Amino acid sequence: MSGVGLATGGGVQHAPVEAARSNEATVMTLTDIGLRFGEVQALTGINLRISRGERVALVGANGSGKSTLLRVLHGLLTPTRGERLLCVDCTQAMLFQRPHMLRTSALNNVALGLWLQGTHWRASREQALAALQRVGLADLAGRNAKALSGGQQQRLALARAWSVRPDVLLLDEPTASLDPNAKRDVEALVADLGQQMTLVFSSHNLGQVKRLASRVVYLEQGRLLADLPVDEFFNGTVLPHKHPEAHLFVTGETA
Ligand SMILES: Nc1ncnc2c1ncn2[C@@H]1O[C@H](COP(=O)(O)OP(=O)(O)OP(=O)(O)O)[C@@H](O)[C@H]1O
Ligand SMILES: [Mg+2]
Questions:
Q1: What is the pTM of this model?
Q2: Which residues line ligand 1 (CB under 6 A)?
């Protein structure tokens, strides 16, 4: 991997090619990113470099800009200012909080993404079945995806993302609105995927952040106020002194 080039997301998303400047270990770089939705300044002055193999958690209150930042990283939103660089040949996929399922079988939901990427239909179905096995849904391959439970749909969405073997997986609150069992299942799957690919995820569950992340980024009102290794974020002495807002957020959430 070298330079910068085309990023594909989940088999369907194509991000624009941008200047060639990142190094081997860097999968994404954002420089001074700003984004407005009309009157709302959703992101301001975001600088972020993500290296291969990192597991980056985005934390912050409702409306702090986590989903917007993930969408910028995935190329779904064009920033109002700043620069976004991606590594060449890097593929990425994004998992949304409420994944959209097509009104067809679970198997086809995965196979279609592969087919759209250019894989032969028969091979797409074989790879899709392997992906369903990977997430423990092989028994439900023929079931209409819209009829699956929330946790099953989330696992199906993970299978869809995993099937294209992305280098980078972006996840927006992957376990929000799931029951405790489904939460555990999906979190274990995400942990497993994190061994194979770079993860960037948002979460309100700080226990989950501690378990899954190697690095924590704290956002407040669209600004990045802290960016630390997970141990320093939760246990270190840096946070209370250098990032009091983030420290308040953590103590408030865990109180
Ligand atoms: N499509 C949109 N149009 C207008 N404003 C938007 C849009 N999407 C997000 N915003 C605004 O941008 C800001 C950041 O929103 P975002 O969804 O990124 O926050 P978040 O950190 O993901 O919040 P949550 O924890 O509730 O998911 C908020 O003020 C929100 O109201
Ligand atoms: Mg959000």
A1: 0.88
A2: 37, 40, 42, 60, 62-68
